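Pasting two entries for a bug report.
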Amino acid sequence: MSNPSSSWIAQFKPGDRVEISPHDPGFRGSWFAGTVVRREAKNTNRYVVEYDQLYEDESGEKLLQETLDWIQLRPPPPPPEKKKVQFKFGDEVEAFYSDGWWEGAITAEHSGGKFAVFLSGFEEQIVFEEKDLRLPVQWVKGKWEPRFEQVQREKEVS
């Protein structure tokens, strides 16, 4: 009997746009935009990727490339549905900060469409404009699914 969690493996091609989740300390819970450069080898599930906004050194001349497992990659999420997302206190969100999307939770609502978000990766609270927030989604077996918390919230609203 095969392991169901390993029965589906994402396949990427050179040039595919992806979001990259580094597993390095200090980067957990983050996603960065990038491009697939190539597969590491023909029969592996590792890919060489290049980040859009992370660089190899302080000079900012050469974009960072890394070899990562397929599980650390996903296509960019689809844009939010036409209906405007109504963020509120306690929502789990991803906030665009320091060149990537970081997991966090809304801790306060401010006027003018701004929200205080506690970013667990930074262990600090930062105020963001609504345009810099998105609801987190999961890439599961080749399709986008809302996180459990979002499904529960939608049931409460309807």
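Entry 2 (this is the one that rendered wrong in the viewer):
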Amino acid sequence: MSKSRKTCSLDQMQQLMLVVVLVMTSVVHSVSGQNLTAVLLGFTQYSQFNSLLSSTGVAQQLAGFRTYSVMLPSNDVLTPWLAANSKFTTGEIANVLRYHVLMNYFTVDELRGLNGGENVTTLYQDTGNAYGQDGMLTITDGTGGEVFIGPVGVTPTVQILTNITQFPYNLTMFKISGVLVPLGLVALPPAPTPAPVPAKAPVPVKAPANAAPTLSTPATKATAPSPNAATALLVHQYSYILLLSSLMLFSASFLLNL
């Protein structure tokens, strides 16, 4: 009976350890594949980009990838670009966002090393939505040590300004000076102009006492990023690993004493 109980306990322990290992593997995967939107919460100057990631569904798509680099235009760059390109549909905006995601982890030195010698694949190219090389980017060095990025086939004009943060070797984020737009989207034909509607006689309206603020109001200075946001995310995720490890050790000890 004792031998049977011991064999049963060993079998149960092996099954339990298998379950714990599988769960831990899943947690480690989630730690490696950083949640971009959660990380960006600590960098308020990129909140417009972060909001669009969620509203277009690109954030959900990125959850399936573990390694990538992101080129980020700040709010004072992206907001006026969106206003000037209001004709773009949600799907086209989503492709613009995908065009900012490079499907490799790059350090600053690695980006400098490319210098036009190799085209870089983006999430836009990876999805199969792009025509030909429309979803590829090229990177070149400037004469003064600058690094520029842009569509293949034209001289890049968007400058890579600084490395914002990185999680080796899964996620790295760079600040850029402009918005990257695939050439195929730039060449889209304009939407058909609707037939003119006869104008009605204007109705006098009394002007309000205080004029409403306009979109031309100068952008406010970007606030400094919160350095604790990304760290808190990692601490929270790694706590699951420690908890599961303790559970495995406790369970193994308990079953061996049955």
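Dev reply: Rendering is fixed now. As a check, the viewer should reflect this: The two ends are 12 Å apart (CA to CA).
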